[in-house]
């Protein structure tokens, strides 16, 4: 069996996984909203920049982004902590996907909502932020939460650059205990405990939205 | 007194489709004008042109001293929207906001009213449409007729000088139609100037000071409610015949 010290190490590692995920949710979400707004902007340059950003990020593996953030910057002479590099990569990765998901939601808001807001003499800025964006985000809640589950699982890639999150730590412990079944079962349970509430929440929201749009 | 709305030879086309072909009519202050006509005759388009949702291709429109023409600016349109309210067939309430928030939004953000002022105002207009108790409900929790009355209240909260209604009862069951028409009748009694596109002939005749029959993008016949009893043109005769 595992020692209490080893179990404790896994629990601490789970906190790093959760921390990395929360950074991706919050900062990635903030940048993602900016990207989504640029994607639907009337300004052609902003649209082009955000489009290119999304294409590049979605067209390269997260693993490679992690390596680039860590080794790339190190080679250029910046010393960077593995966790910082992993956070940066997670933020870039998640912002591109959030941006694309929310762009779809924003565009799915019916044109009549714009008209109703315009006829109440709201400024274009107010129409967008008070009426369109909240509804667009609401429409995209199920895919958003679904993607959040992916984020939690994909933080495991930070292990390749030496972040002591759950996957990395479990490999270390396995190397010293040779109890792969016990170690990785426990790790699977820990991941599941983080992902399941999100998946459950996503399903619930989807049901709720389906009722609202009946 | 000069009319509050004046359309002068207004034309509007979508591509090669000439939807309005020289439409002219006036709306007197405090009067109710009902626009009737077959589907596709251009009624909604005429109404949408009157508050700038569609840009006209020719002629001119004056609404509450705002002039609409081909080159009207966004700022001019916004000034117009401060004076003109519109209610749509599909209600178009904001589904993510409660009834109260729907109504208070524009008074707060556009008229810069305080929260307390906006709340009092919202309670007042909700009372007018008979839905005072629905302040905290979400639109999806209301019947179609109730939603439409909230839409009217939301528009009223901006204290418009003119209100436009585009077939506001067409999506409703007959029982719910009555409650919305009642609200509109009360507004008319209070002296609100109203232009409404409707299929409710009895309402047009009973409440309308003027009835306009549109046909093929033109004002085909115009007069008081009596034109529905004694149509001058075969087109209106046929339309009334089918409608009643
Ligand atoms: N945005 C648009 N683009 C293209 N054609 C349009 C547009 N809006 C309206 N039309 C066309 O213009 C014509 C008149 O439409 P309008 O909606 O004004 O008719 P209406 O009299 O309100 O009819 P209904 O009673 O069915 O509402 C129709 O042939 C319609 O298809
Ligand atoms: Mg119409």
Element layout with pairings:
The complex is a heterodimer of chains A (214) and B (244).
Chain A: H1 4-39, H2 44-58, H3 62-75, H4 82-108, H5 111-119, H6 124-139, H7 141-154, H8 166-177, H9 180-212
Helix pairs in contact in A: 1-2, 1-4, 1-8, 1-9, 2-4, 3-4, 4-6, 4-7, 5-6, 7-9, 8-9
Chain B: E1 5-14, E2 17-27, E3 32-37, H1 43-50, E4 58-63, E5 66-68, H2 74-83, E6 84-87, H3 99-109, H4 115-128, H5 144-156, E7 162-166, H6 174-189, E8 193-197, H7 201-207, E9 210-215, E10 218-223, H8 234-243
Parallel strand pairs in B: 3-8, 3-9, 6-7, 7-8
Antiparallel strand pairs in B: 1-2, 1-4, 4-5, 9-10
Bound molecules: adenosine-5'-triphosphate (ATP) and magnesium ion.
Looking at this protein, list some descriptive labels.
heterodimer; A: 214 residues; mainly alpha; MetI-like fold; 82% helix; B: 244 residues; alpha/beta; Rossmann fold; six-stranded mixed β-sheet; four-stranded antiparallel β-sheet; 8 helices; 36% helix; binds adenosine-5'-triphosphate; binds magnesium ion
How would you describe what is shown here?
The complex is a heterodimer of chains A (214) and B (244). Chain A has a single domain, classed as MetI-like (MetI-like fold). Chain A is built from nine helices and no strands. Chain A is flat, with a radius of gyration of 20 Å. Chain A starts with a helix and ends with a helix. Helix content of chain A is 82%, strand content 0%. In chain A, helix 3 crosses helix 4 and helix 7 runs antiparallel to helix 9. Chain B has a domain of 170 residues: P-loop containing nucleotide triphosphate hydrolases (Rossmann fold, 3-Layer(aba) Sandwich), CATH 3.40.50.300. Helix content of chain B is 36%, strand content 25%. The model of chain B has no long low-confidence stretch (mean pLDDT 93). The chains are: A mainly alpha (214), B alpha/beta (244). At the A-B interface, helix 5 and helix 6 of A face helix 2, strand 6 and helix 3 of B. Bound molecules: adenosine-5'-triphosphate and magnesium ion. Magnesium ion binds next to helix 1 of chain B.
């Amino acid at each position: 069996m595992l020692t209490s010290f080893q179990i404790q190490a896994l629990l601490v590692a789970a906190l790093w996984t959760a921390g990395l995920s929360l950074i991706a949710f919050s900062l990635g979400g903030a940048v993602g909203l900016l990207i989504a707004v640029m994607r639907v902007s009337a300004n052609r340059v902003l649209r082009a920049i955000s489009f290119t950003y999304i294409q590049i990020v979605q067209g390269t593996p997260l693993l490679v982004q992690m390596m680039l953030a860590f080794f790339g910057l190190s080679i250029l002479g910046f010393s960077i902590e593995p966790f910082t590099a992993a956070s940066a990569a997670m933020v870039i990765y998640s912002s591109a996907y959030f941006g694309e998901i929310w762009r779809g939601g924003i565009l799915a808001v019916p044109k009549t909502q714009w008209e109703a807001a315009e006829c109440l003499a709201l400024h274009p800025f107010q129409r967008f932020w008070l009426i369109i964006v909240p509804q667009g985000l609401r429409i995209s809640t199920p895919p958003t939460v679904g993607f959040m589950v992916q984020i939690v699982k994909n933080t495991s890639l930070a292990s390749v650059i030496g972040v002591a999150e759950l996957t990395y730590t479990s490999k270390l412990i396995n190397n010293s205990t040779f109890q792969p079944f016990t170690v990785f079962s426990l790790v699977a349970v820990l991941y599941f405990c983080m992902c399941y509430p999100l998946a459950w929440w996503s399903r619930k929201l989807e049901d709720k939205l389906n009722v609202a749009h009946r | 007194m000069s009319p509050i709305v004046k359309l002068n030879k207004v034309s509007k086309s979508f591509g090669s489709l000439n939807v309005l072909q020289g439409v002219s009519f006036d709306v007197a202050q405090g009067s109710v004008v009902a626009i009737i006509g077959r589907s596709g005759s251009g009624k909604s388009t005429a109404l949408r042109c009157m508050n700038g949702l569609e840009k006209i291709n020719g002629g001119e429109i004056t609404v509450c001293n705002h002039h609409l023409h081909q080159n009207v600016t966004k700022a001019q349109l916004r000034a117009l929207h401060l004076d003109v309210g519109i209610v749509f067939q599909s209600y178009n309430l904001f589904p993510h906001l409660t009834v109260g928030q729907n109504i208070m939004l524009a008074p707060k953000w556009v008229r810069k009213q305080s929260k307390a002022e906006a709340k009092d105002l919202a309670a007042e207009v909700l009372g007018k449409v008979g839905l005072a108790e629905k302040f905290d409900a979400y639109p999806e929790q209301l019947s179609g007729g109730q939603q439409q009355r909230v839409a009217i209240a939301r528009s009223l909260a901006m204290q418009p000088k003119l209100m436009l209604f585009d077939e506001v009862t067409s999506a409703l069951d007959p029982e719910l139609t009555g409650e919305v028409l009642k609200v509109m009748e009360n507004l008319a009694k209070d002296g609100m100037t109203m232009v409404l596109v409707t299929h409710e002939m009895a309402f047009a005749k009973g409440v309308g000071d003027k009835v306009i029959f549109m046909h093929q993008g033109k004002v085909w016949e115009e007069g008081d409610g009596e034109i529905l009893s004694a149509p001058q043109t075969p087109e209106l005769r046929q339309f009334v015949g089918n409608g009643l």
